[in-house]
Amino acid sequence: xxxxxxxxxxxxxxxxxxxxxxxxxxxxxxxxxxxxxQKQIEFVKDVVAMFDIGENKTxxxxxxxxxxxxxxxxxxxxxxxxxxxxxxxxxxxLRGGTxxxxxxxxxxxxxxxxxxxxxxxxxxxxxxxxxxxxxxxSTEVEAALLHQMGVHVFAIGVTEDVDVKELKHIASDPGxxxxxxxxxxxxxxxxxxxxxxxxxxACNVVDLESVCTKDNDTDAIFLLDVASLGSKVSLxxxxxxxSVTLNVQLKTNLQFGFFVSQxxxxxxxxxxxxxxxxxxxxxxxxxxxxxxxxRRTGFSVGHGGRPKARQIxxxxxxxxxxxxxxxxxxxxxxxxxxxxxxxxxxxTDTKRVKxxxxxxxxxxxxxxxxxxxxxxxxxDMLCKGI
Length: 386
Fold this sequence. Notes:
Elements: H1 11-15, E1 20-27, H2 34-48, E2 58-65, E3 69-73, H3 81-89, H4 100-110, E4 122-129, H5 136-148, E5 152-158, H6 164-170, E6 182-185, H7 195-209, E7 218-224, H8 226-229, H9 231-247, E8 254-260, E9 269-272, H10 286-298, E10 310-317, H11 323-334, E11 337-344, H12 350-353, E12 363-366, H13 371-384
Parallel strand pairs: 1-2, 1-4, 4-5, 5-6, 7-8, 7-10, 10-11, 11-12
Antiparallel strand pairs: 2-3, 8-9
Helix pairs in contact: 2-3, 2-7, 4-5, 9-13, 10-11
Keywords: Collagen
Domain VWFA: 21-198
Protein name: Collagen alpha-1(XII) chain
């Protein structure tokens, strides 16, 4: 199974620069000799080297397992390829039994979860083992739970002692291609023969996962009252917004921009499908002024708006709505502009904003201590349909 050769020069081209979170789970039990463990590490380095590594590109994490589980490093640990390869060289050799089920459980609960893995990119797990687990039934159950979460699992069995039936349970359902997620090789030297094919198949998964399903044209503008939120928080929010638009492979049917309050050192960005900030001076100050500006000119053709596109304002709030703000919001809604409110802190009364949204799912929380959760929520909305 899976012993085809491939041209490694085509691997990154197949990925097309699309982002993914790719995690390796490496068997480090006593049945693997230290010299073979090093060959396993070299194999992982060779595969990882084919990806475009970066915070907004492909992120890599690795854990090892025997009768115990150890996370070597997470998705957030290394965004530089050279640093990543150095870290792989330092991976531990554990020894002991083979508790695959427990390792998969840790992956499910600690790795592919909101706030750790990005929720709008492909999730890929590569499991390498040389034998069979101490509890095949539990391993099957844990693998099935990962599959249900949408994690694409590749299973690589090394040596003749591997349990092929168990590999099939660990690996994702391949559909019509019975070999697409499973590889077997006779020894650790033979891992060299599958590295290119594994990378290409992982890239094929990324390609399938990285296209948004949003069908209708949507123009979205983020409103930030910097004077109220503060420059530090505002810059952090803008960084997250830009990260989403870089990571999510948006179709041309979605454009975004952001307006900031006057007297800040942050500049507006008019509607476009890119993420580069354009130079423009805001005429209006405060939250009320931002809503007024968006209502009057933000979605106009002259500022990048499209006549038939859905119009949405993402409004960040850290204080209660004033009567003046409610008037502007009502006027905006009367001309077809929808709102999504992002609440910061505890001073905003969410009951005051509920009348202006289509449902409670359009009122989000922004935790300054865990901004990644906001990024995932916005990315999911933009990609799957607001």
